[in-house]
C-alpha cells in the first residue's frame, strides 16, 4: 500500500530540456556578475566558504567562480554549485525572466493525490530553495501547496540507498509504504534497495528497466 510519494523533478514532472536548456544556461550566464554584485551577501559568502572546504584551500573570488564553472562543465551535483544556482534563479524568477514548466499529466496527478490526502515529497539534486522557487513560478502559478516537504543533496546522494532510508525516517513512514518516481535507473535502484516501491517515468523512450515503467502519469490510473 502506498501512503506517501516521493518525486524527482527533471525528466519526471518537468522536462529535462527546461532545466538543461533554460535554467542551467541562465545561471551560468549570470554567475560571475551575480557573485561580484552580491559579494557581501551572507549566503554568497557561505557558498564561497563551502567551495574552499570542497577544494581544501582558500580561493580568490575569481578562482572560486572558475571552480564553479568547472563543476558546471563536469555536471557535478555539488552543494555550493546548487546553492548559487538557486540564488541566481531566484533573481530570475522574481524579475519575471524565468517561468517553470510542469508536465500537465504530472500536475493533474499530483493535485489528485493531494486532494486524496496523500503526502507528496520532492527529492532533487537542486537545492531545497531552488525547488521551492521552481514550484513558485509555474504555468499553473505557485504549486508549493502540493508538497509536504523537500529533500536535496544535503540528505545524501540520490544514487545511495542510505539517502532514501533517511528520507523514510524524516517523513516518519515505513520504506515499503513509500513510492518513488524517477527517470533515472540508478536512483530507482537505490530507493528499491532501501525498501521503497519504485516506478520509472520513461518519457523519452528510455524504458528498459527492472522497475515498473510508465511514460506519463495518466498511466498510473488509480494506483493510489
UniProtKB/TrEMBL annotation:
Its cofactor is Mg(2+). One of its GO terms (molecular function) is acireductone synthase activity. It is an enzyme of class 3 (hydrolase). It catalyses: 5-methylsulfanyl-2,3-dioxopentyl phosphate + H2O = 1,2-dihydroxy-5-(methylsulfanyl)pent-1-en-3-one + phosphate. Binds 1 Mg(2+) ion per subunit. Keywords: Amino-acid biosynthesis, Hydrolase, Magnesium, Metal-binding, Methionine biosynthesis. GO terms for biological process: L-methionine salvage from methylthioadenosine. Pathway: Amino-acid biosynthesis; L-methionine biosynthesis via salvage pathway; L-methionine from S-methyl-5-thio-alpha-D-ribose 1-phosphate: step 4/6; Amino-acid biosynthesis; L-methionine biosynthesis via salvage pathway; L-methionine from S-methyl-5-thio-alpha-D-ribose 1-phosphate: step 3/6. It holds the Pfam family Hydrolase. Coiled coil: none annotated. Belongs to the HAD-like hydrolase superfamily. MasA/MtnC family. Bifunctional enzyme that catalyzes the enolization of 2,3-diketo-5-methylthiopentyl-1-phosphate (DK-MTP-1-P) into the intermediate 2-hydroxy-3-keto-5-methylthiopentenyl-1-phosphate (HK-MTPenyl-1-P), which is then dephosphorylated to form the acireductone 1,2-dihydroxy-3-keto-5-methylthiopentene (DHK-MTPene). Monomer. This is Enolase-phosphatase E1. It comes from Venenivibrio stagnispumantis.
Amino acid at each position: 500500500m502506498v501512503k506517501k510519494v516521493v518525486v524527482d523533478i527533471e525528466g519526471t514532472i518537468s522536462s529535462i530540456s527546461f532545466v538543461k536548456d533554460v535554467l542551467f544556461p541562465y545561471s551560468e550566464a549570470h554567475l560571475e556578475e551575480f557573485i561580484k554584485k552580491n559579494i557581501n551577501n551572507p549566503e554568497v559568502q557561505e557558498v564561497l566558504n563551502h567551495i574552499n572546504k570542497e577544494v581544501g584551500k582558500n580561493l580568490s573570488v575569481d578562482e572560486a567562480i572558475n571552480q564553479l564553472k568547472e563543476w558546471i562543465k563536469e555536471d557535478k551535483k555539488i552543494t555550493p554549485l546548487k546553492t548559487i544556482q538557486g540564488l541566481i534563479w531566484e533573481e530570475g524568477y522574481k524579475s519575471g525572466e524565468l517561468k517553470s514548466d510542469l508536465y500537465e499529466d504530472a500536475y493533474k496527478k499530483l493535485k489528485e493525490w493531494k486532494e486524496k490526502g496523500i503526502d507528496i515529497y520532492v527529492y532533487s539534486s537542486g537545492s531545497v530553495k531552488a525547488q521551492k522557487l521552481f514550484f513558485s513560478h509555474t504555468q499553473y502559478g505557485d504549486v508549493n501547496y502540493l508538497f509536504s516537504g523537500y529533500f536535496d543533496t544535503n540528505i545524501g546522494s540520490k544514487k545511495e540507498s542510505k539517502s532514501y532510508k533517511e528520507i523514510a525516517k524524516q517523513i516518519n513512514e515505513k520504506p515499503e509504504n513509500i513510492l518513488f518516481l524517477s527517470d533515472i535507473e540508478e536512483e530507482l535502484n537505490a530507493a528499491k534497495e532501501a525498501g521503497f516501491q519504485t516506478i520509472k517515468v520513461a518519457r523519452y523512450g528510455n524504458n528498459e528497466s527492472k522497475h515498473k515503467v510508465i511514460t506519463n502519469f495518466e498511466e498510473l490510473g488509480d494506483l493510489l
